[in-house]
Amino acid sequence: MRADTIGLAPPLAAFRAACPLLDRVVYLANCSQAPLSLPVREALGRWQASWSELGMHWAGWVEEVDTARAAFAALIGASAEDVAVGTSVSQLTSSVASALVSRPDGWNGRTRIVSSTLEFPGVGQAWEATSRFGWRVERVDVTVEDALTADHLVKMVDDSTAVVSFPHVVYANGALVDPRPVVDAARARGTLVFLDAYQSVGTMPIDAPALGVDMLAAGTLKYLMGTAGIAFLYVRPEVRERLEPTVTGWFGRVDPFAFDPTALDYPRAASRFDLGTPPIVNAFAARAGIELIAATGPAAIRARVERLSQVALTCADRLGLRVLGPTTAEAKGPTTAIDCGSSERAWAVEGRLRDRGVVTSARGRGVRLAPHGFTLDGEVEHALEETAGALAALDR
After folding, report:
1. Which of 43, 83, 209, 359 is geometrically suited to a Cys-Cys bond with 284, CB 3.0 to 4.6 A?
2. 176: which DSSP letter?
3. 8 Å CB contact between 176 and 129
């Protein structure tokens, strides 16, 4: 075993060995973009070879999209027919919104959406667009300093609520929101639950049907080790049969290859939320990344990132760094956000860290340190020491 994998269990050591970039930098930007792994590089090579050698190979390429769909479904405990493929979570949320606003009576006679000020903009803005059709969006008012909790959302859900939408892990500060109390409150009132799992899937076991959420969306460029340009949407069967998105396309039909421009038939499967020509190249990367995560094991990754969160919190306290959001490991996803005081300072810290071989991701006033299952304790400690040094340099 290589020296730089000592302290990692064998599946995690193999995970680390699959990412050559980790030999050269401390990589803590997984909340934004995962490093390129060998399996994903090989998958992209397979796509390039097929294009180079065969030119058009649509049957094989569409099969790859469906294989990626099935891989994502298996990772969240669902069936392939329960999952739609899109280009981004923003696009898929917009498709859901289009299906809701096109219903004459809303959802169960309701047109109120509950969200929060810590929703990712692409999701929150899709909900906000429903206001153009007479819908009402109300938000839990929390800041990046706060930890969004299930209790915040439960208090907002009432008999007028059509949808409650929230992130499983908040992108800005890593707060982990327990879906189960929200699902219980929503189910008692006939309210839909939309869970944005972009910052959680790949770092912990998730069983969407067991959680009882109606919809779960995520992309692959972060902890699923893929690239931008592809995302997935789980839709509970009992719900999707009542939703007909008007943001749609030819792959959202019963038979896309019927080539009938007058037909607007919706398949029973979640593919009714598919749009136009699918993201072929991205699907090759997505499948390989998801399979790498599945082989490593989300439970093992969760145990690792929870330990790394404790390391980060302890080290931040020692260095006098202010943590935004939760300050206990069990209340967090992988991200630990360090308060830099302003967005300008956060971007400056990110740049200084990159110059010193530490890759992080700034958002708002915080610089986010987001390890994965392959990250070492010492790398987190080193990154925080460099962060403290960068902030001190800005103050001089």
Report:
1. 43
2. B
3. no
List residues bridging with 169 in a β-sheet.
176
d(CA 102, CA 111): 11
Three-state DSSP at 346 gives helix
Tell me how far apart the alpha carbons of residues 295 and 285 are, in angstroms, rounded to a whole number: 15
Residues 247-279: pLDDT tens digits? 999 999 999 999 999 999 999 999 999 999 999
Strands across the sheet with 361-363, in order? Answer: 323-324, 336-339, 366-369, 361-363
Residue 47: phi and psi, rounded to 5, are: -65, -45
Q: How far is CA 85 from the centre of its chain?
A: 14
Residue 305: CB atoms within 10 Å: 26
The residues with which 138 forms a beta bridge, in sequence order, are 114
| pLDDT for position 3 | 41
Non-local (6+) Cβ contacts of 51 within 8 A are 57
Distance CA 40, CA 11 (A): 17
| pLDDT value of residue 7 | 74
**Cα 152 to Cα 182: distance, rounded to the nearest angstrom:** 9
Q: Sheet with 231-235: list strands edge to edge.
A: 83-86, 231-235, 215-219, 192-196, 161-167, 112-116, 136-140
CA angle 181, 184, 189 (to 5 degrees): 130
pTM of the model: 0.97
| DSSP assignments along 268-305, one per residue | SSGGGG--SS--HHHHHHHHHHHHHHHHH-HHHHHHHH
Q: What is the pLDDT of residue 6?
A: 61
Nearest CA to 298 among 203, 173, 172, 176?
Answer: 203
Task: Quote the Cα angle for 284-289-294, to 5°.
Answer: 130
Among residues of the chain, what percentage have pLDDT more than 70?
98
How far apart (Å, rounded) are the C-alpha atoms in residues 379 and 370?
Answer: 11
Contacts of 355 (CB under 8 A, 6+ apart): none
Domains with residue ranges and CATH for the chain: 3-30+297-395 (3.90.1150.10), 45-293 (3.40.640.10)
- Chain centroid to CA 165: how far? 14
